[in-house]
């Protein structure tokens, strides 16, 4: 009979932990990128993007990094 070591995490635990690390990394990357372009966007737009990045774990940062950053840089605030 095969004994299971309780100190070794199951594969599913490793996969979920890896996904959490990726989601956290994307959120941090998105927020840092947002903060760098914050002076070229309106306060409302920055607040909405920050909420999207924080509240929608993977899709929020990906949306900012693909679409939001490009639009914020191309439309400087007057």
Automatic annotation (TrEMBL):
Domain Cardiolipin synthase N-terminal: 26-69
Keyword Lipid biosynthesis assigned: no
Transmembrane segments: 14-32, 44-67
Main location as per UniProt: membrane
A UniProt-annotated Pfam family: PLDc_N
Topology relative to the membrane: Multi-pass membrane protein
Keyword S-adenosyl-L-methionine among UniProt keywords: no
Highest taxon in the source lineage: Bacteria
Keywords, comma-separated and alphabetical: Cell membrane, Membrane, Transmembrane, Transmembrane helix
Subcellular location: Cell membrane
UniProt-recorded name of the protein: PLDc N-terminal domain-containing protein
């Amino acid at each position: 009979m095969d004994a299971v070591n309780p100190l070794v995490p199951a594969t599913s635990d490793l996969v979920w932990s890896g996904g959490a690390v990726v989601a956290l990394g994307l959120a941090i990357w998105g927020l840092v990128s947002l903060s760098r372009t914050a002076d070229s966007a309106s306060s409302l737009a920055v607040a909405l993007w920050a909420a999207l990045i924080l509240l929608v774990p993977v899709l929020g940062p990906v949306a900012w990094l693909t679409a939001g950053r490009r639009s914020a840089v191309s439309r400087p605030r007057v």
